[in-house]
């Protein structure tokens, strides 16, 4: 019996597996190869071999902020109609908070499928982001800039340490560019924060179904998810996997009046009560915030010093920042801000 099968056996009643009629379980383990992956994922099939459940297990005991966050967000999404897994339960097992959720049904929205029908992919993505709920109205969202922008960027600078001022200078440039936005009252929205392959699926009705909510922010910033998603779709349409290719895709997507994503993003900002004239700041903000999540993704929960297992040294953190695609696009957005 595998670890996942034993876990489900022990917690069968708490997870309501009898009510779900999940029997004859067989599991396969999927090990994400991303450097920042903090979980091992188990796929659970029923007696007929059809995948039914996903089990997400933290690699490190106690490093459960991601599974707890995902469980909380899936609870918030229940009944909203947003395409996401259903929460089955969060159980404590061997000093780990293990997440169990349903499998989403649909075709993987991989780059090849995006290229086959880019208009359908974009339409599904825009509809999905537009359906994410507002979690705080603008007049109740004071201090959003400190919480959503300043604090994460500060954490990244602290993790990297002294790199000759490069990252600190990048952050300083970012705050200067974002000055017109930072004091604007904006609502908080539920934010996925990683709308890209392999997290995206197209259901039979054409709607977008999205997995892996461990990076989600209950009180995110309007426009962030749409910028990230449109950037990914722009790369997929062009088959852009090199840094130069990704920068070219960025320009085609966001830069200049002919950029195909600009009207979509402007309409979205308008619908969220934000002046579309702030579009350049929203694009920069999205790539800066996405880059800043490295600070959390590289450091396991509970690791407080370089001696703690799993915590990178400043040199390792600097290498991760230098290699990160989102950081490269953050720099490029700043370089192109006058054309956005």
UniProtKB/TrEMBL annotation:
GO molecular function: transferase activity
Domain Aminoglycoside phosphotransferase: residue ranges: 50-252
Keyword flag S-adenosyl-L-methionine: no
Organism placement in taxonomy: Bacteria, Bacillati, Actinomycetota, Actinomycetes, Geodermatophilales
Pfam families with a match to the protein in the record: APH
Record's protein name: Phosphotransferase enzyme family protein
Keywords: Transferase
Keyword Transferase found: yes
InterPro entries the record matches: Aminoglycoside_PTrfase (IPR002575), Kinase-like_dom_sf (IPR011009)
